[in-house]
Amino acid sequence: MASSSTWLALGIALVALYAARCVADDRLTKSKYKDVVFVGPTGTFGTVIGFFQLLLGFRDFIQEGFEQHYGKLFAIPTLFQMTFVVSGHDLIEDVRKASDDQLSLYGSIKEGMQTDYTMEPHILENPYHFKFVHLALTSNLGGRFPELREEVITAFSELVPPTDSWTSFPAWLTGKHVVLRVINRLFVGPSLCKNAAYNEINDIYSDALVKTALIMGFTPGPLKPIVSKLLDSYIPKTLRRAMEHIGPLIEERLDQERMFGKDWPGKSNDLLTWLMEKAPESEKSLKAITIRLLATVFAAYRPASMALTQALFDLATFSSYIQELRDEIEPIVKEEGITKESINKMYKLDSFIKESLRLRAGGKSSMPRKVLKDFTFSDGTTVLAGNTIIAPGYAIHHDARHYPNPNEFDGLRFARLREEQDDPVRYQIISVGPTFMMFGNGRHACPGRFLVSALLKTMIVHVLMTYDIKLEQDGVRPVDKWYTFTPAPNQTAGLMFRKRAK
Ligand code: HEM
């Protein structure tokens, strides 16, 4: 795999090349958007400069636009197109209500992840694997909860064995491994989910996808096939390694079916089963199944493991909540154990985790939509086809209009709102809307959020019941790392655990 500096140099060269093309691009012409406010430099070279200011974190045009033009549509430079940002209830509603052939989530994923080059061409023309997440998992989460609980507890206890004295463990690595195991338990079953080599392949594949997508995204259209070939064969190689694990598992399942019948009592009902049985006939090859599996793991595991790591950092940082959370959790667990129903009753815990998500997860850009047909908002402004529309998730989550003292971690913020308004639904982690956008909004809102909520709650319950936890350096929360629009938890810091003392 090429080194980071080679990737960067290649990226910069391609950007320079492409800047020339931008001159002629109609979509970037400011005069086409008379009613739209522009934030940051404009014009061909201004856009390039603005793009680098944004990329390198010198300016935050989304936040600037949000503060200055709240409720209006504004445009920011993102080099090859304009990115239009919507804020305020009405414009976000317009996006939510738009049809898929006007504003497309898959169009924006296709572009952002360069799926024609990183996965397979046309994968998003029929993203049935996404639908299977809902059908195989979300709608059956109650049935699969015991596996989730078992995997959370076994994986965490193996990675962080309870000790009498304080011991430091790498927070990010631990979070990643636990989440990968749980997700793969639900996607491919109990044997493969524990296979360290397979989990590592998932991790490497996800990493390679992100890096390759970044370079391919910088590459002008006509050069993409060439650059894609130059970018070595890392993704195909990793895919082949994954197929070496998935192939025998498929064979094993087919053998069982031959022996015990199609619907034998011990038959798995995970994502792999759905892909084997319900994918279109032309997509039932080992390669097609493996690509869909890895693509779904990618969507699921990276954001979920970041969220878990951040929640653990917050638990250690704001340790005054520990006793209050234990007071809520313990009687429920004593009475009912850790079940899907019992964790639903833990609304202070829900609030604590949601506050962690609000402050740290998601990113500056939410609800991305590629404009497939010129789109006119309810205020009369029009965005031309070919551009992208986003909502400013991070700015919304840090807006005092919605969240008093928005930069303060208030672990019981949502629990209080729930009590004051006697509304058990609206303030839960899984509830989406124009003021809580980390799972998107509308018909495409993340179907994995039910799993995320169950996983994070189970994890934190297990930690609170089994361990004491603290920061490595008292009072110093490890600093997040930003990747342009997306925050990630600190990847090198540790967290201290010991067997619970009282
Ligand atoms: C903290 C963790 C997660 C975050 C922050 C997150 C966030 C998102 C967001 C923002 C979207 C786009 C929604 C929109 O634009 O309206 C999305 C879509 C999606 N997510 Fe998640 N996600 C997470 C975890 C998961 C997990 C665990 C799974 C699978 C088990 C998953 C599966 C999906 C799928 C399949 C879609 C596409 C939905 C569609 O086709 O309409 N996500 N997610």
UniProtKB/TrEMBL annotation:
Heme binds at residue 446. The keyword NAD does not apply. One of its GO terms (molecular function) is monooxygenase activity. It comes from the Eukaryota. The chain crosses the membrane at residues 38-58. It holds the Pfam family p450. PROSITE patterns: CYTOCHROME_P450 (PS00086). Its cofactor is heme. InterPro entries: Cyt_P450, Cyt_P450_CS, Cyt_P450_E_grp-IV, Cyt_P450_sf. Residues 1-24 form the signal peptide. Keywords: Heme, Iron, Membrane, Metal-binding, Monooxygenase, Oxidoreductase, Signal, Transmembrane, Transmembrane helix. The keyword Transmembrane applies. PANTHER family: CYTOCHROME P450 (PTHR46206), P450, PUTATIVE (EUROFUNG)-RELATED (PTHR46206:SF1). Belongs to the cytochrome P450 family. This is Cytochrome P450. It comes from Lentinula detonsa.
